[in-house]
Design a protein that fits this description.
The protein has three helices and three strands, in the order H-H-E-E-H-E. It has 83 residues and is of the alpha+beta class.
Length: 83
């Protein structure tokens, strides 16, 4: 979450149009910490996914978990604080 928060940005087009939202994006990380897949559309979803991509690199999945990937659902707030 920290890496995604640091890479997050409010899309200019959304800011100009006064669009706010809290998209919930789903993505999977591979066993080496790579972004395996993502889902989403629309302005806010695309910005959230971009933050996830820009937040890389992510840690490897610990061997004891014996998983090839782990899927996450993450909500990211895009709220305008004023005019």
């Amino acid at each position: 979450m920290r890496k995604v928060s640091q890479a997050n940005f409010f899309p200019r087009l959304a800011r100009r149009r006064g669009i706010e939202g809290i998209p919930i994006v789903s993505f999977a990380l591979g066993h080496k910490g790579e972004l395996a897949k993502s889902s989403g559309h629309e302005i806010m979803n695309d910005a959230a996914l971009e933050a996830i991509r820009n937040g890389a690199s992510y840690p490897h999945i610990p061997e004891p978990l014996n998983e090839k990937s782990i899927t996450f659902k993450l909500s990211i707030s895009y709220i305008l604080s004023g005019p």
